[in-house]
């Protein structure tokens, strides 16, 4: 991506204007990232009761930190790049220009790390949902708040259980105080002091069903002879909620960071080539001369970056 080219004053002006515009775009993208982080925090907190042990503040914190650093970093870059468009306003403090490019390179790495963090958190969100929804199902019969939450989730996301409606068949979700435990029909379903049967809560019923919902004795087709298929939601709540998180949080944020990553890379290359061209022109005492612009050959433009700092110190 980095090549050596000869750039005149017109070329430096074009590169200066290009990087100025690019840095302005990155400033706005940094604000977008910050706002997205706030939105993610709100949406995660809204579903936090379903996510066992998940820290809803970690991911938004990294994103807000990245957005804040980007904002101030590229504000400074706008000043440097715009000044570089004109010989009269161009700074001769090349060591500061190099330092700024290094900071933007650090931002590039930081954004790349953020993408990795998002992918890691996607797995954490899923595992916490599995534990949280499973726990809510077990507490369904005794905890009214978690019962209401579970019913709302199953209704809103049109889902049932952790992985499927059959998950309800494996736990005792009916409170024994509401059934006649002395009845022979009930006793045969009592296992370990819990009523376990092929029943599911009414909130599992599919909205698309054109007939009355069968959520008791679901697998007993002798009772429900005229039903061709189960009319409960077939999608598990973990998959349904994860699909929601991916659609509104994970994928859009990852794409935003990926776009920022590409723009940061372009910004680094063009700023570096602009800086080396300006430095080389100053070296020959002709600020408007056509000079080489590069980003690989030496880090300071015509020499090592340490040489720039030594000159500044002297």
How does this structure look, described?
By secondary structure, the chain is mainly α. The longest helix is centred in the C-terminal third of the chain and has 47 residues. Helix 1 runs antiparallel to helix 2, helix 1 packs antiparallel against helix 6 and helix 2 runs antiparallel to helix 3. The strands form 2 sheets. It has a two-stranded antiparallel ribbon with strand order 1-4. The protein has a two-stranded antiparallel sheet with strand order 2-3. The protein folds into 2 domains: 191 residues, no CATH class; 70 residues, no CATH class.
Rg result:
31 Å
Instruction: Give the overall form.
Output: rod-shaped
Largest sheet: 2 strands, antiparallel
Number of domains: 2
Arithmetic mean of pLDDT: 84
- Contiguous runs where pLDDT drops below 50 for at least 5 residues: 298-314
Question: Roughly how much helix do the residues carry, as a percent range?
Answer: 55-70%
Number of helices in the DSSP assignment? 7
Order of helices and strands: EHHHHHEEHEH
Largest sheet strand order: 1-4
Q: What percent strand?
A: under 5%
Overall strand count = 4
Separation of termini? 34 Å
Briefly note the structural class of the backbone.
Answer: mainly alpha
Layout: helices, strands, pairs:
Blueprint: E1 5-7, H1 9-46, H2 58-83, H3 94-138, H4 144-156, H5 184-187, E2 190-191, E3 194-195, H6 237-283, E4 291-293, H7 305-313
Antiparallel strand pairs: 1-4, 2-3
């Amino acid at each position: 991506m980095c090549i050596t080219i000869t750039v005149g004053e017109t070329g430096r002006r074009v590169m200066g204007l290009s990087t100025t515009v690019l840095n302005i775009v990155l400033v706005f993208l940094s604000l977008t990232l910050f706002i997205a982080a706030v939105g993610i925090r709100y949406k995660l907190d809204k579903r936090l009761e379903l996510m066992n042990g998940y820290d809803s503040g970690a991911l938004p914190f990294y994103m807000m930190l990245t957005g804040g650093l980007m904002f101030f970093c590229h504000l400074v870059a706008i000043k440097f790049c715009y000044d570089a468009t004109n010989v009269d306003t161009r700074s001769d403090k090349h060591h500061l220009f190099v330092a700024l490019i290094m900071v933007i390179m650090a931002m590039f790495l930081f954004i790349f790390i953020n993408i990795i963090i998002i992918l890691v958190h996607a797995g954490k969100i899923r595992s916490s949902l599995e534990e949280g929804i499973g726990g809510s199902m077990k507490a369904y019969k005794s905890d009214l708040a978690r019962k209401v939450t579970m019913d709302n989730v199953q209704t809103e996301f049109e889902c049932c259980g952790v992985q499927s409606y059959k998950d309800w068949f494996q736990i005792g979700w009916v409170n024994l105080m509401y059934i006649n435990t002395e009845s022979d029909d009930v006793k045969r379903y009592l296992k370990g002091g819990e009523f376990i049967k092929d029943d599911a809560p009414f909130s599992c019923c599919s909205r698309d069903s054109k007939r009355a919902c069968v959520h008791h004795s679901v697998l007993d087709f002798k009772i429900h002879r005229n039903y061709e298929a189960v009319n409960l939601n077939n999608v598990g709540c973990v998959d349904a909620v994860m699909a929601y998180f991916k659609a509104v949080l994970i994928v859009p944020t990852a794409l935003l960071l990926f776009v920022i990553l590409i723009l940061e890379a372009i910004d680094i290359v063009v700023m570096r080539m602009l800086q080396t061209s300006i430095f080389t022109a100053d070296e020959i005492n002709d600020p408007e001369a056509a000079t080489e612009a590069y980003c690989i050959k030496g880090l300071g433009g015509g020499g090592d970056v340490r040489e720039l700092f030594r000159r500044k110190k002297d």
